[in-house]
Design a protein that fits this description.
- The protein is of the alpha+beta class.
Length: 159
């Protein structure tokens, strides 16, 4: 897990992208997480390098050709190793090679790059939870069908 300061310029780019995009279909947070999501992509690109693509299927293409989809959650506190990373069940068909997970603090000043996981292995190793189900790992009621994997299971990214 790597703590990253988010430059004001990255927050401005994230806000501009969120305004341009508008409300996504199937948004679990009704669009309230869009700025944080784009800020998470900025953080991932800073850590991983590559080229921004921002398609439905992936957000970055790394120098080796790997396609990365960035999954971001907002947070009020430093993430702990037992906290979960999630991929919504309606995203399982995204054509990417790797997931990168980021937590962005609600103030948009800092973020944690948590790690990566290969897409093909993620669904094998993650726990599936249905909307409305209480996740026994953290007592959270799931807002949408999803696959969860704890932060301590992620791989450290190295270029």
């Amino acid at each position: 897990m790597r703590l990253i300061g988010i430059p004001a310029s990255a927050v401005q780019r994230a806000k501009a992208k969120a305004d341009e995009m508008g409300l996504l279909n199937n948004s679990i947070t009704s669009g309230h997480g869009n700025v944080a999501g784009f800020a998470g992509e900025e953080v991932a690109r800073f850590v991983m390098g590559g080229t921004e693509k921002n398609t439905f299927d992936y957000d970055l293409i790394l120098d080796d050709g790997s396609r990365v989809d960035v999954k971001t959650k907002r947070t009020k506190a430093k993430p702990q190793p037992h906290y979960d990373c999630s991929v919504a069940a309606y995203n399982t068909r995204q054509d990417c090679d790797l997931y990168a997970f980021v937590r962005v603090h609600n103030d948009l000043k800092i973020a944690w790059f948590l790690g990566v996981y290969p897409k093909d292995a993620y669904y094998r190793d993650a726990r599936f939870l249905r909307r409305g189900e209480v996740d026994q790992a953290n007592n959270f009621t799931v807002k949408a069908d999803c696959y969860n994997l704890s932060i301590d299971k992620l791989y450290t990214f190295s270029a």
